[in-house]
Amino acid sequence: MARFFYAPKPWLTAARLVCSPWINSKRNVMNEETCAPGGVALGETGFGHTLSLIGGKYKMLILYALAEHKVLRHNELKRHLGGIAFKTLSVVLKELEADALIVRKEYPQVPPKVEYFLSSKGASLIPVLNTLCEWGERHRPT
C-alpha cells in the first residue's frame, strides 16, 4: 500500500529528476546509478515506494526500536518514542502492519496482550536505515 502523507513537493517532480546529472535526459532513460527514471512520476519508482513506506515522523523510529528490542508492546513503544500520542502511535502501527513491515501478535487473554515485532520485510529495511543514519552523521553540521 503506497501512501504519501504529505503533498508532493515541487522539487520532487519527474521534471526535476530528468534534469538530474545521473539521468540521460536526451533518451529519457534510467542511468544504472539511480532508481529514479526520467519521465516517470516519483510515486511510481522504487524510491517513491520506499519513501511512502518509511515516510513520516515516527515510522523509522518505530522500526529502529523494534530492531533493537525485538518485541515491544504498545506502551513500551510509546515510552521509547517519547512525545507521541496514543492515537498517533496506533495509526502508525496499523499503517506499518498494513505495509507488512511489522507483525502484530494478539494473545487471547484478559486483559488483552498485543506485541509488535519486525517482519522479514521490515528487517530488510534496517540496513537501508543504517546507511541513512551514517550519511547523516557524516554530513551533520558541526
What this model shows, in words?
- The chain is mainly alpha-helical and 142 residues long.
- Helix content is 44%, strand content 11%.
- The chain contains seven helices and three strands; from the N terminus they run αααβααββαα.
- A three-stranded antiparallel beta sheet has the order 1-3-2.
- The longest helix is centred in the middle third of the chain and has 13 residues, at 86-98.
- Mean pLDDT is 80; it is low at 1-31.
**What percentage of residues falls in helices of 4 or more residues?**
40-55%
Q: What count of helical segments does DSSP give? A: 7
What's the alpha carbon Rg, rounded to whole Å?
Answer: 18 Å
Distance between the termini: 38 Å
Instruction: Name the poorly predicted regions.
Output: 1-31
The description of the largest β-sheet is: 3 strands, antiparallel
The whole-number mean of residue pLDDT values reads: 80
Compile the SSE list and pairings.
Layout: H1 14-18, H2 46-54, H3 59-69, E1 71-73, H4 74-81, H5 86-98, E2 102-107, E3 113-118, H6 120-123, H7 126-138
Provide tags for this entry.
3-stranded antiparallel beta sheet; 3 strands; mainly alpha; 7 helices; disordered N terminus
Question: What's the short story on this structure?
Answer:
With 142 residues, the protein is mainly alpha-helical. Helix content is 44%, strand content 11%.
